């Protein structure tokens, strides 16, 4: 059975990890080592704990009154097989999916192991956190270089289409 390495149990009712109230899946392990990272404890590739994919899916689906789920970390794209397995089940239940990554969308398109995961993501916040570009005025991202991407439209158009989070 496929497992995922998590940094912590899922978090519910987040208002900073995407539009609406969101459940967050905290992936363990990151190789970007961004200066000023606010999730230092999620960087160790061997830290955290392993959990069965089905247990994560059931925990997410059991939460009520959520707008969707967000994959964060750590770096979800370091565990694309596990994240894809979770995302596929959640999407089949109608769950809206956001994902944060330090990789760029273009880099992910060149990674066969991440391409399938992208098929299930509605919105991707891409790019490494850059301390010099940090701003508290940015919506759903930490630094100005990061993009909020409408993944289905971007895959269809074969170019980055930015997501407009405001109604």
Automatic annotation (TrEMBL):
Q: Which InterPro entries match?
A: Aldolase_TIM (IPR013785), NrdG (IPR012837), Organic_radical-activating (IPR034457), rSAM (IPR007197), rSAM_sf (IPR058240)
Q: What is this protein called?
A: Anaerobic ribonucleoside-triphosphate reductase-activating protein
Instruction: Give the family from UniProt.
Output: Belongs to the organic radical-activating enzymes family.
Q: Does the keyword 4Fe-4S apply?
A: yes
The reply on keyword Iron-sulfur is yes
| EC number annotated for this UniProt entry | 1.97.1.-
Organism the protein comes from: Pelosinus baikalensis
Q: Which domain of life is it from?
A: Bacteria
Keywords, comma-separated and alphabetical: 4Fe-4S, Iron, Iron-sulfur, Metal-binding, Oxidoreductase, S-adenosyl-L-methionine
What does it do? Activation of anaerobic ribonucleoside-triphosphate reductase under anaerobic conditions by generation of an organic free radical, using S-adenosylmethionine and reduced flavodoxin as cosubstrates to produce 5'-deoxy-adenosine.
Cofactor(s) needed by this chain: [4Fe-4S] cluster
């Amino acid at each position: 059975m496929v497992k995922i390495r998590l940094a912590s149990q899922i978090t519910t009712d987040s208002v900073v990890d995407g539009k609406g109230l969101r459940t967050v899946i905290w992936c363990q392990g990151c190789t970007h080592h961004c200066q000023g990272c606010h999730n230092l404890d999620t960087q160790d590739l061997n830290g955290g704990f392993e959990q069965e994919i089905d247990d994560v899916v059931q925990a997410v689906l059991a939460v009520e009154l959520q707008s969707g789920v967000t994959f964060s970390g750590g770096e979800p794209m370091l565990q694309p097989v596990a994240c894809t397995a979770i995302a596929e089940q959640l999407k089949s239940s109608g769950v809206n999916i956001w994902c944060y990554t330090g990789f760029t969308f273009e880099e992910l398109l060149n990674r066969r192991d991440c391409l399938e995961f992208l098929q299930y993501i509605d919105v991707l916040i891409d790019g490494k956190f850059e301390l010099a570009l940090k701003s508290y005025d940015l919506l759903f991202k930490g630094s100005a270089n990061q993009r909020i991407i409408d993944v289905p439209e971007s895959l269809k158009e074969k170019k980055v289409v930015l997501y407009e989070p405001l109604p």
